[in-house]
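Appendix B, Record 12. Input sequence as logged:
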Amino acid sequence: MNVDVTTVRLTVAQAITRYLANQYIEIDGSEKRLCGGGFGIFGHGNVPCLGEALYGLQKELPLYRGQNEQSMGFADAGYAKYHKRRRFMFCTASAGPGTANLLTAAALAHANRLPVLLLCGDTFLTRLPDPVLQQLEHYGNPTYGISDAFRPVSRFWDRITHPAQVINSLPAAIATMLDPADCGPAFIALPQDLQGWAYDYPTSFFDKRVHRIRRQSPDQMEVQAAVQLLKSAKRPMIIAGGGVQYSSAVEELTAFAVAHQIPVVETIAGRANFLSDHPLNIGPVGVTGSDSANAIAERADVILAVGTRMQDFTTGSWTVFAHDARIIGLNAARHDAAKHFSETVVGDAKLGILEIGKFLAGYKAPEDWTTFAQHERSKWNSYVAENVKPGNRPNSYAQAIGVVNALCDKRDRIVAAAGGLPAEVTANWRTLDTGTVDVEFGFSCMGYEIAGGWGARIAQSEDEPDRDTIVFVGDGSYLLMNSDIYSAALTRKKLIILVLDNGGFAVINKLQNNTGNESFNNLIADCPTVPEPFTVDFVAHAGSMGAVTETVSNPAELGEAFKRAKASASTCVIVMKVDAYEGWTTAGHTWWEVGTPEVSTSKKVFDAHVDWEASRAKQRRGI
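Logged structural output:
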């Protein structure tokens, strides 16, 4: 029987872009375009064909011109984080170094479980012009190239070798990016010749499609096992991870904790699940956490870990919990739910919390346990209040955080990453509203801050245009990647950027000193190959890229400058020097495993090794 299938003849590039433009997602009862557009730098590997296709869809898929492919990927990640993984943008890069520059961004998205679509140029399928510009030749495998480097950092990887493959590849890539368990970057290699090849695609392929995020119900046997374990708990604790926000389960988790009076601690990715003044919010846990959260973590007998991958900064390299503590892993991803011999509840966080709560009726944590946790949090609140107070010591990250915290709107978005700022923000930021903090510590990637802030601001402009995106960045990360100040100014996506200058890579200098080593090659002043150190004029530099800039000398001046930045319609950069040695938050830390020299001619280094290893006895053994 003959079937009449209506077709439309399109190039591969045209088919990809038209398909993306017709994908929608239902969010809170309303439909939005799934792909919010893209970030692109054109080269010979993508401009003739993909550029042509995108030109005709500028309204549906707005294309933001990047300054650096890596930072485009970070902006993409910042956009996806803001939208709780329910929307994404694409990045397009040319063949060769353009594509290679996206590798770090793909790794960041993979570690953080973020949907990022990478559409990258590749070498010619016909191989007739080989070797071409920017092609890596592998003598024994002519199919191998830069694109293959993305296999370990992609959740979905494909190289299109025939136009018809788009029909299967694109839906599979989107299904991966929207899957709560497998979410992560999708990489599609597009050979340069193939991008322009035409094919008769079924018109139905381009019909509007509305996607919905799958919510997997947990298995009842796993739920019952978790319930029985919780009912036996004398000192229960909940760890709230980033997955709580991605599942939109903040209200359900809050109600669950209140109903059963179970103290809650937050991971770095889970910061801003609870407001800072909630009576059951005991603080951030782990290496960069709080004394209060770590105090209950080491005493808890049953731990309900919700939406967390239990990274070493959460677990103190697995020293923060008692050896005999039982862990329940509630997670959409089986891999994360099962870590460290956990009782697994594989499923959606919201549905899992509701299901466990249904069978836990009548149970409440012992009053003395909850009271103890709240007392510890009260002490931590007092420490933070003193820690962020201006004038209590030389200029510090904590003081700058305290100034911004006191003056910002509750819906302003905070962005930080890598170096010392993630620890300082995690420990000292007092959450004003849920879902407002983005501390990128999954991959701990320097350079994410400004670029990720730009992506977040693009997303924020769609939903909360009257709010601000506030970026905390150190001088080291600024120098690594700053060009999206220009991007933000060009696109009129206002950022408020605080550059806190401590003269180099000060947090690694601190680690260097803490392990008995002398300061070496981290602070600019301690680089033996630098004859005459000097300070970068960050104000002049940022000003040259279109930002409104000023330097302040203390937290009081910072507060006044921040008020001016809030009132401005332009991207603003405020620079303040902070102390590299005396400005750190000293409380709240747990042990963290780093490699230290077992043999050294330095007594300080050897003694530090012995001291460091002394805490290893607290380390749990597990998977």
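The chain has three domains: 7-211, 220-380, 388-577.
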